[in-house]
Amino acid sequence: MKIIPCIIGLGYVGLPITLILSNKLLTYGFDINKERIKRLKKKIDDNKEFAPKKFSNIKRIIFTNKIKDIKNCNFYILCVPTPLHKNKTPNLKALNNATKTVSKILKKKDIVFIESTVFPGVTERCKNYLEKHTKLKNNKDFFIGYSPERINPGDKINTLKNISKIVSIKTKNKNILKKVFKIYNQISKKIIISKYIRAAETAKVIENIQRDINIALMNEILLICKKLKINFKEVMRLAKSKWNFINFMPGLVGGHCLPVDPYYLSTISKKNNLKTEVTLAGRKINDRMLNYITKELNYFLNKKNKTLKNSKIMIVGLTYKAGVADMRNSLNFKIFKKIKKYNNKIYGCDPFVTKNIKTTYNIYDNVKKSTYYDVILFLSYHKIFKKIFQNIVSSKNRNKILDPFNYYS
Fold it and tell me: What is the pTM of this model?
């Protein structure tokens, strides 16, 4: 039987998969966001990850928000977001809804793969739901697996095609495995197979937890150096001379993964009567960096006999990391909005943000007259921002710059 793939959820994960599969297969892209579908049909990616020329195979893509259009598909890949509730517990609403959608059209011999970040056991929950609502049996009538996404927004080197891809499914059906390999070998160059789905689910979250903790350690070292009046940049230069030193830099941690995944693992651990001690340690420190920036900004302005309320402030870097349009869990933007509540003379410099954000928050793409501002605060690292930094320095306005993470100083 011919494979007809359908990607459910066309965000940072789903869209690149759709575009890659369309190189050889008629591919369906499903999303409940009608406006997103309209824009994609016009070759417009509002996430700014793919230019119109990347939609070269659009004739082999059917973008839709209608369930009836995808009922004849037989390989469903779920790429919906899995954020947090306000109380920091996993919010699986989108994944549950996507599973419900699949249950309405699931047929014998269909294959379902989940790519969303989850805690161990969620794929099994989805399997149970599908079995209950379709009367079909897993590994007999349909087949379900898990392949954790490793998309790094803004990264043009470690692209989906170039990274290793974990593919986990527990079946001995050779025909099904052949179809799974055919799809995922097209998506990524190197496939890592596992029959242990829970291990694959866990591997995904610990990849990001490890990074979160390492950045948190560097943030704490930065705070210690500030307190003890030690040159942090020199500390790092010396430490990196050791062969096995891991080179992480301090900074604001945001996005859809690092601030979220630790809570997914800690929640399921807590439900199983295990209290985590290290897993959430990075969260506490990294979230506190918002206060660090505010204090640094106040101190900087006080030395100029200025206050936060009456100063002209430019913040460079507003998305959760430089080079992407993603504003989810952006501490940069949170700082911006916090100051804006009582200071209308605050501006943002970030060419990567989407147009709707620009309209709402008066964001400029460049620092045109650095002499106008009392402080220019750099919160992200990027070659574009580095050039702005250098331009300000060459215009003899170095005293206007606040570089709290020593990105450019």
Answer: 0.92
